[in-house]
């Protein structure tokens, strides 16, 4: 267990003192509840008007950084005028920003081929789902009975093995899922830095997330004096300096932020 250093009360006080804020958030498990099937995840009720109202504030820039494909996450959030980063920041779009990681684009054929092979290779594993996201892919096992978890990992690694051996791709973990990404040194932390550098270099960054892949974004925010906020139980190790219990607490924090800015 990691002791978090700051309460939301202290964070909200620090936020109230800032001239400009870069408010960045993850989607699954942060703005939406975790669902058994990835396609069932929706923005929590009430978050759309909160994000709209916060986005209208002249001193707040909002970025959504997700492991989902950009079109998928922007469609699920559905609030215009925000910065959306998909595939862990490999693609970023919004007012004043249109970015696609060049090396990631080169890996598209390999990722798409791996997704097709995984669908076939995992066909006999109950509950296994393959989410093809063009620049990356995810093999989900949330619906797979525990006795198959070792098999799914072995099949996944066997199928993508040649791409790992050539150095073209790398494997990362997500909640009840394994992901295949291009082997480029890029993650949500770099994406957060890019948004800040391009659009709001004087803004105070605060990042909300719930998964392993969000740790890089907490680091990026905190390295310039900002705040990382982990969403989840206190038993999880995190480098974020603040913790909130759940996506419901995130919604409450957004409402609080709207009231104080
Ligand atoms: O960075 P995020 O926006 O949190 O995306 C991370 C992954 O989220 C999704 O999978 C996770 O959420 C699903 C829906 O709640 C859940 O069923 C799954 O077990 C989780 O891993 C998404 O499907 C992935 O593509 C993202 O990489």
Helix-strand layout with pairing:
Blueprint: H1 8-16, E1 21-25, H2 47-56, E2 60-65, H3 70-77, E3 83-86, E4 91-94, E5 97-100, H4 102-106, H5 108-121, E6 129-132, E7 137-140, H6 149-165, E8 169-174, E9 177-182, H7 188-199, E10 204-209, H8 215-223, E11 227-231, E12 242-244, H9 247-260
The structure holds ligand L263DTV3.
Description:
The protein has helices at 8-16, 47-56, 70-77, 102-106, 108-121, 149-165, 188-199, 215-223, 247-260; strands at 21-25, 60-65, 83-86, 91-94, 97-100, 129-132, 137-140, 169-174, 177-182, 204-209, 227-231, 242-244. It has 261 residues and is of the alpha/beta class. It has 2 domains: 8-100 and 186-260, 3-Layer(aba) Sandwich (Rossmann fold), CATH 3.40.50; 104-182, Alpha-Beta Plaits. The relative contact order is 0.20. Helix 1 packs parallel to helix 9 (247-260), helix 2 (47-56) packs parallel to helix 9 and helix 5 packs antiparallel against helix 6. Helices cover 38% and strands 22% of the residues. It binds the ligand O=P(O)(O)OC[C@H]1O[C@H](O[C@H]2O[C@H](CO)[C@@H](O)[C@H](O)[C@H]2O)[C@H](O)[C@@H](O)[C@@H]1O. Residues 26-29, 34-38, 41, 66-68, 131, 138, 140, 142, 174-177, 179, 211, 213 line the site of ligand L263DTV3. Ligand L263DTV3 is lined by residues 26-29, 34-38, 41, 66-68, 131, 138, 140, 142, 174-177, 179, 211, 213.
